[in-house]
TrEMBL record:
Keywords, ordered alphabetically: Oxidoreductase
One Pfam family in the UniProt entry: Aldedh
Range of residues in the leader sequence: none
Coiled-coil ranges (or none): none
Domain Aldehyde dehydrogenase: 31-494
Phylogenetic placement of the source organism: Bacteria, Pseudomonadati, Pseudomonadota, Betaproteobacteria, Burkholderiales
Organism: Pseudorhodoferax soli
The keyword Membrane appears for this protein: no
Protein name as it appears in the record: 4-(hydroxymethyl)benzenesulfonate dehydrogenase
Amino acid sequence: MSNSTQHLGDVKLPTAGLSGNFINGEWSKPIGGKTLDVINPCRLDTITSVGAADARDIDAAVAAAKAAFPKWRRRAARERGAMLIEFGNRITAHAEEIARLLAAETGNALRTQSRPEVASTAEVLRYYGGVIAEQKGETLPLGPGLFSYTTREPFGVVGAIIPWNSPLVLAAVKIGMSLGTGNTLVLKPAEDAPLAVIRIAELAADIFPPGVFNVVTGEGLAAGAPLSQHADVAKVSFTGSHEVGQKVAHAVADRIGHLTLELGGKSPCIVYPDVAGDTQLDTTVNNIIAAMRFARQGQSCTAGSRLFIHETVWAKVMPRLVEKVNALKVGDALDETSDIGAVINAERYTAVCGFIKEAIDAGAKVETGKLPPSTADAKGYFPTPVIFSGVDNTWRVAKEEVFGPVLVAIPWKDEAQVLAMANDTHYGLAAYVFTNDINAAMRATEALDAGWIQVNRAGGQIPGMSYGGAKQSGIGAEYSIEGALESYTSRKSVTYGI
Ligand code: NAD
């Protein structure tokens, strides 16, 4: 791998932020002096390196956040909100620069993924900036001689840990909810994609009072674990894998802390028999592709990766689906013509290839796609979108989160049976239903165990909607004012005798 960044063209790197630690309003290098390389997964080049923090840096960041909390919690909610709006506006003003950086580090295509993610990031911050003044309590009619009311109190220091697949928008959700509600924050981005988060932290450096918003870059075990275990972190908000989520939950339980978990999914996509006319078939196929998040290499927690097609429309849906998926262009994330970029790193690429090979060896029918080159032969971690049929719902490829562009299609004829298959997973994050039959849609949405069900739509989250997983996909909800109040504040009851 080369250390040259000239191949990145007009991608502008963060400056002060490369040191890694933004603590108490100042950028600094980690105490241990360690760094970690950030790799462009399309070009297998080192983009740059950033600080790699350890427990000592986490201690310093948490101490700064703790010291800043008493004043911050007393600021009027609308003042905190105004700062979030200013933050969102600055991101919009630098949108293209941030999107290019995001595409370079994540491998998420600039046109289809990275630009829209930057726009959503600004939108989330402005949303919380606007609604956070609704941090209201209740008055209680407890009877004569009593006056009782509640207030919504922040917890203190929030530790937020995020993954690499959509790092900016996830950072914005944690920032908006925690700072808006009067908590202070220590945010740890993922080691594979810290640069765009660092860049927006640079833009925020003079918005929030020192210590209110802190960022610490580093690896999971060295930096994430001490943050989740820290006695002065009142709440942890974690988005990531089921395995790490379990460890974080244990650490938080040891001190009876507060916790939000946004974990993985294996979401079903159900096509009903009435989806038959040409226009509706076309729209549904576009939605199936969007639900599978093919354009993000399938690296989405809400990916609709199990496709159940009614047997009477299978022969109409499948050829169109294959044709449209084959038309997607896989290529460099910074190339305007690319629809799909690269898988984040060698480990994930190897795991995705492992799922594909195992399914082929077990006799799955390949409707489209193929096993990509081995990690050693790959010139970039470019996947090939794959659609399998001839797979049973119990196979590993149909049960586990591949987190790659691999879709499993299964025909169905009995509604009760397909709904049972759809629910036959420990996950419960998202689900997609395609039908014009209102009764079928209502039966399906009632029966499906999922935190978010979309009917005849397959887009991303929109600020204002509560989003969170059922079953083992998570605990708590984010993206909404209700989620922020439920997950980032506690009720204080005050009762007066009159
Ligand atoms: P991951 O769990 O490996 O890493 C997530 C974060 O946790 C990273 O910042 C990492 O450094 C940190 N970490 C790793 N080990 C840790 C430890 N022992 N203690 C504390 N922190 C630690 O996940 P990933 O591979 O980066 O992301 C993919 C996963 O995230 C998928 O399972 C996906 O479904 C999930 N995800 C969920 C949502 C959601 O909203 N539900 C959104 C995006 C991604």
